[in-house]
Fold dTDP-4-dehydrorhamnose 3,5-epimerase.
Amino acid sequence: MSSDERPRPHGWMATGTPDQPTVTPGWLAIDPPAIEGVRVKEISSVATSNGYLTEIFREEWALDQSPVGQVFQRTMYPGAVTGWHAHAATLDRLFCCAGSVRISLFDGRKASPSFGALWHKIVGPLRPAIVTIPPGVWHGVVALGPETALLLNLVDKAYAYDAPDHWRLPPDTEHIPYKLV
């Protein structure tokens, strides 16, 4: 039954607007990225005899066809903000292993069918997911909650020390219709 077919409550002061579905019956999020080329893979942790095991990336998930050229981690203190950044040629793959972060994306590619789209995803160990971000998509990360967040990035091209593929804007830039701070 769709939300339009649900019976309206009677006798209420106000009925409001019914919620739209947010998860499938298998508890997979219904929030496909509105940005062309961005992929999200919800991941399940598996309980083991001494903790949990969480796969972060597998080639057969077919999130993209790019190699893994470098893996690095970033710690973010509570409330820390990365600011907006984009790459001309590098594909990012973000995974939060500790704490919780909000990843915000803005499609700044003029030729993209989703040009101007804005999208957010909260990820962390309680709801693990990997987010792939193609070149030209501006992204910023905010650490949420009271603990230090640990963010992994599995890029397709290793960092070039002599010519970094990083373009930056401040977290409150007027060029993106969302303030990270």
Remarks:
- The chain is about 0% helix and 35% strand.
- The radius of gyration is 19 Å.
- Residues 39-169 form a domain with the Jelly Rolls fold (CATH 2.60.120.10).
